[in-house]
Amino acid sequence: MTGSDFLRLDPRDAPSRGRTAWLTAQIRAAVADTTLSAGARVPPSRELAEELSFSRGVVVEAYRRLTEEGLLVTNRGAGTRIAQVVPPAAQPLRLPEPLEAVEPLQISEGAPDLSAFPRAAWLQAERRVLATATARDLGYADPRGVPALREALAGWLARRRGIHVPPERILVTAGVTGALSLTAQTMRERGLTTCGVEDPSADGNRRILDYWLDELRPIPVDHEGIDIAALQASGVRVVLTTPAHQFPTGVALSPTRRRELIAWAERVDGVIIEDDYDSEYRYDRAPVPALQASAPERILHISSLSKVLAPALRIGWMIAPESWTDDLIRRRWATDLGSPALPQLVLAELIGSGVLERQVRRLRLRHRQRRDAAVAAIRDHLPGCRVEGIAAGLHIQVMLPEGADDADVARRAASEGIAVKPLSAYRFSPGPPGLVIGYGPHSSARLAAAIATLGRLL
Ligand SMILES: Cc1ncc(COP(=O)(O)O)c(C=O)c1O
How far is CA 111 from CA 191, 257, 362, 367, in A? Predict the structure, then answer.
């Protein structure tokens, strides 16, 4: 076992700046969660520096700080060890850093592991695009998006989501958010100023709809997904839903509910906005096909690269019922003439060359291992708590024991340097307490340490 294995460190988690603070915090957390017990010998600084590809000075400085805190002791000839009695001042992530501030550990959002972004492949594809782009490619693009990307997406969606549409029907958007914003504005144009939204649901999406529309009506979600009887009773004709993996409860819409939802849309002459945000990550079986494939004239399907490549790209897509498409394109044209063309051309290359496919495979494996680690840590450290939902996505909803105050737990976690969101933050109406834990960006050891801290708070 190498020194970094012993400490369960993954250098890919380290920030490019502030590595000393990062390493110091990691060792502190390892002591706090007893990964490192009193008397254990830490690796020599030269060895650890080599394994992590850090400069030796970073490790020496981290050891020096921890020695000053009393967490490490150095004996001539016996190397550096964890102190027998850990002083109270050495609690994890609580100490103000003398030189660099430690960022809170973000386990609050369902982000992917952004350290896995395929930088080299992106650069290569960008070079190829720049070497071959025509003058026309560098002019004003079609507001629907560049044809090469829409063609690549048509194949991608057919293979992966069971959606069969010609490229002309695909609109490239600024992520799911851009698609929702266009949709809400087009709804308003058509006199549809009220929208149903799942309760609980993603607050970001809700804020966008709330900005453009007059009213959002919460529709409860249970273990089968959105409650169709409540949807019918709400009187809305448009609903935003996450059928493949409900956010945040993690349930998949049951086959019966899928049929009932489509039947509801037919009955009220309505539209279902299908937010297909993380369907690439299903760990127990192949993902279910998109709802769009079952009722193309009732579904506005939206998705993005935010969970597969990076939210910063702001690239997503939308497939709307034919009767909506022209209005959506006109609105996109009138807003900004469409998305920037160069990143779209790069993405088309990445799809065409199989890079995106490999990236999804690689990330699915990594995220699955992290989910397993988080579930195991919840079992070990959060007794009386329950993991909800299917094995999928980038987040887990954990139900807390009855009577717990999830907002209070989240507040106390923040003071321990852990940013986690309470389930109540996603709800319209009060309900059982829970936490929503995002595991994508973090190593198994880090997740275990953070969840152990949550356990202590509970
Ligand atoms: C439910 C849900 N939908 C969509 C998104 C992605 O939005 P965007 O594509 O605008 O980045 C997120 C991001 O966290 C999300 O949680």
Answer: 35, 28, 15, 10
Q: What CA–CA distance (Å, rounded) separates 29 from 101?
A: 16
Index of the ligand 1 atom closest to the CA of residue 305: 9
Q: Which of 114, 171, 247 to mutate to test the pocket of ligand 1 (most atoms within 8 A of CB)?
A: 247
Token match 């030189």: residue? Answer: 99
Question: What pLDDT does residue 86 have?
Answer: 55
pLDDT at 102: 58
CA 172 – CA 302 distance, rounded (Å): 10
Report residues whose beta carbon is within 6 angstroms of any ligand 1 atom. Answer: 110, 175-177, 202, 205, 242, 247, 275, 277, 304, 306, 311, 316
pLDDT of residue 85: 60
What pLDDT was estimated at residue 174?
98
Residue 211: Cβ-neighbour burial (10 angstroms; 0-12, 13-18, 19+): exposed
Rounded to whole angstroms, the Cα distance separating 58 from 19 reads: 7
CA distance 458 to 453: 9
What pTM was estimated for this model as a whole?
Answer: 0.80
For the chain, residues with pLDDT lower than 50 are: 88-101
